[in-house]
């Protein structure tokens, strides 16, 4: 579930705590968490590395080390938390990084979908990702051109990380409603004026999500309150905040999708 605002919130919280710290070692508690290299190589290569920066690319948390990049994708249920030296591993902890200030960075992942990469070649992990929504080069003109190049329903297209990086189910539904675009609308039928609204809506909902530290409405992600400001997501049967029409839920590309049938009309 963590999408761009949730991962950005985690990155911002960890950045001042981790920059400059040295990694003394690692406990791999579930080997499949390590996507690459092998768990044995991971343990050997990461020990002694310093954390130079903490950032985000799409839904990946990125720790820049001396000569390597550590990428963490939280997937459905992953979470990262700093714990004291006295911390004892819990049932769903998958990876623990030991820091030189006697704290531990713990990766907890109930569903075991999260993955970690350690690589000297970041493009191997993130090279296929689409543009970042906040990249100044990602303009309304660029969005419109990319929409016209495809012949796909707009909801699944926005979820495609090779098309646009960072959006998930929540923020896509919210952006489509704010822009007035139906989730089943074919991308190559969207006019420039609609793409302009959609571009603005994407940035607006992401910025508002970050402002509220993301959304916390289940056991997966903690700390945010953007769920209190949802326009349509998870509000099936409740009234649209714009026109008071009941919100509907359909399944699009195997994903639950929420929209207003009055504000968002398929053309």
List the helices and strands and how they pair.
Elements: H1 4-18, E1 23-28, E2 34-36, H2 39-46, E3 51-57, E4 60-65, E5 69-73, E6 78-83, E7 93-99, E8 104-109, E9 115-119, H3 123-126, H4 140-149, H5 154-159, H6 169-179, H7 192-211, E10 248-252, E11 255-259
Parallel strand pairs: 2-9
Antiparallel strand pairs: 1-7, 3-4, 4-5, 5-9, 6-8, 7-8, 10-11
Please give a handful of descriptors for the protein shown.
five-stranded mixed β-sheet, 267 residues, 2 domains, 28% helix, four-stranded antiparallel β-sheet, 11 strands, 7 helices, N-terminal domain of MutM-like DNA repair proteins
Number of domains: 2
Within CATH, the superfamily of the largest domain carries the name MutM-like, N-terminal
Strand content: 15-25%
User: How far do the termini sit from each other?
Assistant: 31 Å
List SSEs in N-to-C order. HEEHEEEEEEEHHHHHEE
Count of individual beta strands: 11
The percentage helix is 25-40%
CATH topology of the largest domain: N-terminal domain of MutM-like DNA repair proteins
Put simply, the count of helices is 7
Strand order in space, largest sheet: 2-9-5-4-3
- CATH architectural name of the largest domain: Alpha-Beta Barrel
Form type? elongated
- The CATH class label of the largest domain is Alpha Beta
Q: What is the alpha-carbon Rg in Å?
A: 20 Å
Structural class designation: alpha+beta
* Uncertain regions spanning at least 5 consecutive residues: none
Largest pleated sheet: 5 strands, mixed
Round the mean pLDDT to the nearest integer and report it: 95
């Amino acid at each position: 579930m963590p999408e761009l605002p949730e991962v950005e919130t985690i990155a911002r919280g960890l950045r001042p705590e981790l920059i400059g710290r040295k990694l003394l070692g690692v406990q791999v508690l579930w080997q499949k968490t390590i996507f690459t290299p092998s768990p044995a190589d991971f343990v050997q290569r990461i020990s002694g590395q310093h954390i130079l920066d903490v950032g985000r690319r799409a839904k990946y948390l990125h720790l820049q080390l001396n000569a390597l990049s550590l990428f963490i994708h939280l997937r459905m249920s992953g979470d990262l938390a700093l714990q004291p030296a006295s911390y004892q591993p819990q049932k769903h902890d998958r990876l623990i990084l030991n820091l030189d200030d006697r704290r531990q960075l713990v990766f907890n992942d109930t569903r075991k979908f999260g993955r970690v990469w350690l690589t000297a070649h970041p493009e191997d992990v993130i090279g296929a990702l689409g543009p970042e929504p906040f990249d100044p080069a990602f303009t309304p003109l660029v969005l419109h051109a990319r929409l016209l190049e495809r012949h796909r329903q707009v909801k699944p297209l926005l979820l495609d990380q090779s098309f646009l990086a960072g959006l998930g189910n929540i923020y896509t539904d919210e952006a489509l409603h704010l822009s007035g675009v139906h989730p089943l609308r074919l991308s190559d039928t969207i006019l420039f004026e609609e793409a302009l609204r959609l571009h603005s809506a994407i940035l607006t909902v992401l910025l508002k999500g970050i402002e509220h530290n993301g959304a916390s409405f289940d056991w997966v992600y903690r700390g945010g309150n953007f769920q209190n400001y949802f326009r349509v997501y998870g509000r099936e049967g409740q009234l649209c905040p714009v026109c008071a029409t009941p919100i509907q839920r359909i399944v699009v590309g195997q994903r639950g999708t929420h929209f207003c049938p009055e504000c968002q009309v398929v053309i």
